[in-house]
Write a structure and sequence with these properties.
Blueprint lengths: L1 H9 L12 E3 L1 H7 L2 E6 L9 H10 L3 H6 L1 E4 L3 H13 L3 E5 L5 H9 L3 E4 L4 H15 L2 E2 L6 H17 L6 E5 L4 H13 L4 E7 L4 H8 L22 H10 L2 E5 L1 H15 L9 H13 L5 E6 L9 H11 L3 E9 L4 H9 L4 E8 L4 E9 L7 H10 L4 E3 L4 H10 L10 E9 L4 H9 L4 E9 L4 E9 L5 H11 L3 E3 L4 H6 L2
């Protein structure tokens, strides 16, 4: 199998349109981690992503009869632009079916490269179904984004370049994983020529389809997939890709959204380029691997896989980067409601920089404060701050890992209400499309009173919602059934301590 893929990689026709991207040292990150970190800059491709390699190689292999029929794919991301440009280069008509929720940046990218963008459905499965229907009706040739040997071979040229660009010591290559086309191609080439080099996949911890498949020994379908790193938001690893990954991928590391945001900042600090969340996965994985293994003096490559990020998402990335780097603690502190208490708390914080401060009168005896404080993972860790405050008599609740606190509470502190009987609190992810809120309210009906509602958009495919409902005890099973029927991912946050301190 390996020899066949290596031959396909060596004969891939990617350079008609793709470029050989640099393997760039990340000097600041290397110094911090005590290892040589090299970035494979696939964000510098003509479509700002490695996807052009596989798309072009697949389309270039078509027969003249297939080329005459035209090609089609379903994609909301980088593959769409890769297919459009590849088809344009080869003089072939390309139809790209994209969900109506696709960011305008990516729709424009397809049209600018000569592709016909067809917007259909509110989510990818609907777009995919429509594209397959058009295959039957119009006779188009479907170009799969990852699960195709020619696509895998095209992506494998990334590894070919790495090995000739860096023939010396090479300990591991870290690869972002969605459907697995990139890591399958890289693993096939590397393990054939330099089997001692580790190939390590990196996935978001809420979209870990390869890790789950490797643990189960077979392909599995994730019941839910996080959308923050939308370039790798795949529920099931590909069939062809898994055949290679299960044999030749050494391990899979998972990282949080905050760790991805921190990695986006790391890449910016070293290159002054802005990477999309999926593109920063490999750097986030390296940092986690180095910390876990205590690695020093190694040469580690990260595939910087793409830079197609909507500008408005940068707000969220910047907000969460410090948390991902463990350079900010989010804490709730209770202080006595009396003169001098605020000053005493500030003295207890010391010379640390306060990044956020929210205060709300609670009772005539105590007040709750929501505070962001700058920390340092080595010189001044979060735990040291919390232990210090508690030693000085301040009750502290650490909210740094509390998703409700980070997404909503920090923006709604001060919203205490008088006692609301039978109140339940839920966190939702809404699809970011017209009518989503109406659909929610319509299906919920007028049965239960909404006592709180906070919405926040992060410029991605989903909006974030915090809502509270008054629900009698004997109707809670009916509410659960209703929420399941609505179909939006949700979490019961009624017992969340951040809610009780600041909103309950």
């Amino acid at each position: 199998m390996l020899e066949q893929y290596v031959k396909k990689i060596l004969t891939s026709r990617v350079y008609d349109v793709a470029v050989e991207t640099p393997l760039q040292p990340a000097r600041q990150l290397s110094e911090r981690l005590g290892n040589q970190i090299l970035l494979k800059r696939e964000d510098l491709q003509p479509v700002y992503s490695f996807k052009i390699r596989g798309a072009y190689n697949r389309i270039a292999q078509l027969s003249e009869e297939e080329k005459a029929r035209g090609v089609i794919t379903a994609s909301a991301g980088n593959h769409a632009q890769g297919v459009a440009l590849a088809a344009k280069q080869l003089g072939i008509k390309a139809t790209i079916v994209m969900p109506r929720t696709t960011p305008e940046l990516k729709v424009q990218g397809v049209r600018a490269r000569g592709g016909k963008a067809v917007l259909h459905g509110d989510a990818f499965p609907e777009a995919l179904a429509h594209s397959l229907k058009l295959v039957e009706e119009k006779g188009y040739v479907y170009i799969h984004p990852y699960d195709d040997p020619d696509v895998i071979a095209g992506q494998g040229t990334v590894a070919m370049e790495i090995l000739w660009q860096h023939p010396g010591q090479l300990d591991a290559i870290f690869v972002p994983v969605g459907g697995g086309g990139l890591i399958a191609g890289i693993a096939a080439y590397v393990k054939y020529l330099r089997p001692e080099v580790k190939v390590i996949g990196v996935e978001p911890d809420d979209a870990n389809c390869l890790q789950a498949a490797m643990a189960a020994g077979e392909r599995v379908v994730l019941p839910q997939v996080g959308l923050f790193a939308d370039g790798v938001a795949v529920a099931q690893i590909g069939e062809h890709t898994f055949d290679l990954c299960k044999r030749y991928v050494d391990e899979v590391v998972t990282v949080s959204s905050d760790e991805i945001c921190a990695a986006v900042k790391d890449i910016y600090d070293d290159t002054r380029s802005i990477t999309e969340p999926a593109g920063a996965l490999a750097v986030a994985g390296i940092k986690k691997y180095v910390q876990r293994e205590g690695a020093r003096g190694q040469t580690l490559v990260a595939i910087d896989s793409g830079a197609n990020i909507n500008f408005d998402r940068l707000r969220h990335v910047a907000e969460r980067a410090e948390l991902g780097e463990k350079r900010e603690a989010i804490i709730a502190v209770t202080i006595p409601e009396k003169p001098g208490s605020f000053k005493a708390f500030c003295e207890a914080i010391g010379k640390r920089q306060i990044t956020e401060f929210n205060y709300r009168y609670h009772t005539d005896k105590e007040a709750h404060i929501f505070v962001g404080v700058q920390t340092h993972p080595e010189n001044d860790p979060r735990e040291l701050l919390i232990d210090s405050l508690r030693a000085q008599g301040f009750p502290v609740l650490d909210l740094t890992e509390n998703e409700l606190a980070k997404l909503h509470i920090r923006h709604t502190v001060g919203g205490h209400a008088a006692a609301v009987p039978e109140e339940l609190v839920f966190r939702f992810e809404f699809p970011e499309r017209p009518g989503a809120l109406f659909n929610f309210l319509n299906k919920l009906g007028g049965r239960w009173n909404i006592t709180m509602f906070h919405y926040r958009n992060h410029g991605s495919a989903d909006g974030r919602v915090l809502a509270a409902l008054q629900v009698p005890e004997d109707e809670r099973e009916q509410l659960a059934a209703t929420l399941e029927k609505i179909g939006y991912p949700f979490w019961d946050e009624t017992d969340n301590p951040a809610y009780h301190l600041f909103l309950g």
